[in-house]
Predict the structure.
Amino acid sequence: MINMKLYYYLFTVFTSFSCASFLSAEEKWESLFNKKDLSGWNATDSSKFRVGDGLLIGFQNDGKGADLRTIIEFDNFELKFRYKRTEKGNSGIWFRQFYQFDLLDMRPVTLSGAFYYPKCPTTFVWKNVDESLEKKDEWNEGQIYANGNRIIFWLNGQMLGDETLDPQVHRISKSGTIGVQVHGGDAFKGMQVAFQKIDIRKLNPGDPPSMPVVVVCEEPSQ
């Protein structure tokens, strides 16, 4: 029979350690968006981006697209962002200059969470065809892990892909800016994408990904 006192002691130690590790990891996250203005960002067309009510908003009404990119470049990192988009919108999060976490509805080909980059041999490194993953007209949580050639995406806690890019197949970029895309085209007139947060955590080579889960730290019931 298991010694219950020993069990609770070990459980408490493990829980405390896990929570401490989680909180330590959380402290390393830095916000790229200050909720006040676009300090630290450059836009190819500033008329397509604005800040209001603590949100970063990208939109287009004339068929012309634009990009908003950080001034600073990043190499190995995790990025998490909370977004909401209009249904017909076509947007995405750029990273390492030309990789993208797509935010779109391109049925039946793919939905938000596809991994795209220009001139990808298969158009997308991976796709998302699960319509239940993205919440329509609600806030969604995206997360990117980029360390070396390994890339992972999550959408609302669900892993979409985990790929170590092969230089013989894929274009390799080691670092670059973080960006928000507003896609051009008359089909996307009236589109809007909004972000509540865009947070980054720098990584050392080989650092493992952190899972996008909610950790609840509680004392075990006696």
